[in-house]
Specification:
This protein has helices at about 15-25, 45-60, 85-100, 105-135, 140-160, and strands at about 5-10, 30, 35-45, 65-70, 80. By secondary structure, the chain is of the alpha+beta class. It has a five-stranded antiparallel sheet. α3 (about 85-100) packs across α4. It starts with a strand and ends in an 8-residue tail after the last helix. About 10% of the residues are buried.
């Protein structure tokens, strides 16, 4: 069965009105406000095939950096479609061969590990920032600030205007 796959297109620079117009003649696209990210629906049997078809259709029309599936697959993975230079492909192939892996498996493991390291580092930074606030404020002040932020956030989600705390 052929399905539609949502594909996010990240551009290397904002698309010009002319580029966007030509690309929209080939594929219906939605764009963000600064025209650096686009969204398209591509009909294909698999998400990987949808990425390849869209890359083939739009590569000459837009300055594409990365294509990604907008929604994760059953394993929770988002597929990427990146055009690599000959030098980068050679380096990846050599590193994968040194580890007796296929290039795609090596790249998947490397990117997954890098994302995990980034998330851990970000969590560590946030923890350090919070620990830096603790000596400067009383627990009551921190609780009041957190409660105020949560209330204002929930009001903004519901569309109700936020009132100033008294």
């Amino acid at each position: 069965m052929t399905a539609h796959h949502a594909i996010e297109i990240t551009l290397t620079r904002p698309a010009t009105p002319c580029e966007l117009s030509r690309a929209r003649r080939a594929v219906p696209l939605g764009a963000n406000t600064d025209f650096t990210r686009l969204l398209a629906l591509q009909r294909a049997k698999t998400p990987g095939r949808a990425l390849r078809v869209l890359r083939h259709r739009l590569d000459a029309l837009l300055p594409i950096d990365v294509l990604t599936t907008h929604y994760p697959d059953r394993q929770g993975c988002v597929l990427l479609n990146v055009t690599l230079s000959h030098t980068a492909r050679t380096a990846i192939r050599q590193a994968a061969a040194a580890r007796s892996q296929r290039s795609r498996d090596f790249l998947r493991h490397t990117v997954t590990a890098a994302v995990a390291r980034h998330q851990e580092e970000r969590a560590r930074q946030l923890t350090n920032q919070l620990e830096g606030l603790l000596p400067l404020h009383s627990p009551e002040e921190l609780l009041l600030c957190a409660a105020s932020t949560l209330l204002n956030h929930s009001r903004s989600l519901s569309g109700k205007p936020s009132s100033a705390p008294s």
